[in-house]
């Protein structure tokens, strides 16, 4: 296969920036092939990853873990080894394996005084807007409280989701959901090659990719054997999702101890090589671009001149500035924001349903609990969920 061009696959000099060193919100995806050996969790290796996570948190980095392994761990306890599993057997193995998996993560991070929170998702939870917002709010709250969310596919209820590469894509969708700036997929290989290095001695490592082109997609090979469900094909698919969300992504070799610490140094300084997929936009910019162009509004909020001025300064839309509510929409749906003259001044994701928005229109945020019977967000539309102009 011909060598990649300078764009989208750039020269190796670009890779010396060690992007992990600039991470603020990091997602680490751990696959079954790394975590599980002979149906048992590689505890020494996981302890080293936990040490890395603690060191990153000491640098001020928020860390989220997306883990596979529940089925691989659980199948032995149910006598399901040595043969392919039916769907219901995979779900049963996941149910027993997830308990053991969560306990091990809790134990290893507790050595550093870190609280672990288990979050089980399906792809639908990241794609359906209201479920997306609920999941995002939960993860945001856990990070704010200092916990490390450990996320896995909810394999006990999933159907088509239990298939080739689900957690690579799930990790990328979680990155999109919470506006993470960095995603690391720990793998059995140190990145993307121009061909399968196990079969082609002339295959060359690609250190940096700035666009997922057909040529880049063609470099992906077949999934590895064993219990792992991933492979380079799904990692490229994850890169496409992450880059569209403004999140940089690395494919890095995870079998070594302390694999994240090895990414903090450049290869020239003794750090581990990896392939970095570098987007052209920051996470929030990409999210707002998606809000502006990818969704159809479900309703309209007319606001007063004071609210228009506040939005122009980068503020959120508060209930007090809303004068009228039109349409029928639910929490998380896209709505237009209209000025007093009826012209659109922005659009965003409503924190309240149309029914609740009508109750709150023109009222102060301090009155929300008394009016609705529960304490919701202070903003009708938070500025992170709002596009103005």
Can you offer a commentary on this structure?
The protein is built from 13 helices and 18 strands. The chain has 389 residues and is of the alpha/beta class. A 9-stranded mixed sheet has the order 1-11-13-12-8-2-5-7-6, with helices on both faces. The model is unreliable at 1-7, 10-16, 161-165 and 225-229 (pLDDT under 50). It is an enzyme of class 2 (transferase).
Give the helix/strand class. Answer: alpha/beta
Helix content: 25-40%
Shape: globular
Determine the strand fraction and express it as a percent band: 15-25%
Count the beta strands: 18
* Number of helices, where a helix is a run of at least 4 consecutive DSSP H or I residues: 13
**What is the terminal separation in angstroms?**
46 Å
Characterize the biggest β-sheet.
Answer: 9 strands, mixed
Low-confidence stretches at least 5 residues in length (pLDDT < 50)?
1-7, 10-16, 161-165, 225-229
Specify Rg, calculated over alpha carbons: 23 Å
Strand order of the largest sheet: 1-11-13-12-8-2-5-7-6
The whole-number mean of residue pLDDT values reads: 87
GO molecular function: glutamate 5-kinase activity
Protein name: Glutamate 5-kinase
Subcellular location: Cytoplasm
Function: Catalyzes the transfer of a phosphate group to glutamate to form L-glutamate 5-phosphate.
